Structure formats: C-alpha cells, structure tokens
C-alpha cells in the first residue's frame, strides 16, 4: 500500500511561485509514474505534469514553460515548481502515483489572486 502526503500549497499573487511536494510511503516497485493533477471548482480533474522513474516528463500545454516537475527516487518524492502563476491555475492539486495500481493524495489548495 502506498500513501501520499502533499505539501506546499497556499495563496499567492499572480506572477508568483509555489513549490509542491509529495512524499510517498510504502514500497514502489519497478516502472512507475509520479505526477500532479488539478481540479478547479466546477471542472474535471486534469493532468498537470507527470514524470517516470527514468525522468521522462510530460506537461499539459497550459503549464509548459512555467511549471517544472522533478523527483527524488531515493526519497520517493515528487515536486512541482510552479512559476509565473496565473489566476486560472487556482485549483486543488493532487499527487498521483501509478504502478500496477493508482494512488492519489488528499490534495492541496493552490489559490492565485489577480
């Protein structure tokens, strides 16, 4: 069983930065993908960015050039550096890990004021 603990959300002005962290507990075997999704009020959950254990990354078009995903395999932690934040980035951000199974964090609120 894998559990995920997110941190780093908060309130920031437009143009500011935040860094999200997600630490996984439990054992993760073999190929896996860690990532971040977000869900704004009244909208579906959407992919933000993912990274494999071999560091292959994938980003939503809306965050390319502004967000950077990274991971520390030894710490089983994934990070999301968010720069040049916009009000439309406001959402609950969820950590996600996919191995044979899929695991979700509880979510952390990110609010960007204009």
Describe the fold and architecture.
- The protein has 114 residues and is an all-beta fold.
- Helices cover 0% and strands 55% of the residues.
- The protein is built from no helices and eleven strands.
- Strands 2, 4, 5, 6, 9, 10 and 11 form a seven-stranded mixed sheet that branches. A four-stranded antiparallel sheet has the order 1-3-8-7, with no helix packed on it.
- A hairpin with a 4-residue loop joins strand 7 (67-72) and strand 8.
Overview features:
114 residues; mainly beta; 7-stranded mixed sheet
What's the short version?
The protein has 114 residues and is an all-beta fold. It is 0% helix and 55% strand. The strands form 2 sheets. Strands 2, 4, 5, 6, 9, 10 and 11 form a 7-stranded mixed beta sheet that branches. Strands 1-3-8-7 form a 4-stranded antiparallel beta sheet, with no helix packed on it.
| SSE sequence, one letter per element | EEEEEEEEEEE
What's the rounded overall pLDDT mean?
95
The global form is globular
Uncertain regions: pLDDT < 50 for 5+ in a row?
A: none
Tell me the strand percentage band. Answer: over 45%
| Rg of Cα set | 13 Å
Distance between the termini: 40 Å
Based on secondary structure, the structural category is: mainly beta
| Beta strand count | 11
The share of residues in helices is: under 10%
Number of continuous helical runs: 0
Oligomer: single chain
Q: How is the biggest beta sheet arranged?
A: 7 strands, mixed
């Amino acid at each position: 069983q894998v559990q995920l603990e997110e941190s780093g959300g908060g309130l920031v002005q437009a143009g500011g930065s935040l860094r999200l962290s997600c630490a996984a507990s439990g054992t993760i075997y073999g190929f896996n993908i860690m990532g971040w999704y977000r869900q704004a009020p009244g909208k579906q959950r959407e992919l933000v960015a993912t990274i494999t254990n071999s560091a292959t990354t994938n980003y939503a078009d809306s965050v390319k050039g502004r967000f950077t995903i990274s991971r520390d395999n030894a710490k089983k932690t994934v990070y999301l550096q968010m720069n040049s934040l916009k009000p439309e980035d406001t959402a609950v951000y969820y950590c996600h890990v996919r191995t044979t199974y899929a695991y979700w964090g509880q979510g952390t609120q990110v609010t960007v004021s204009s």
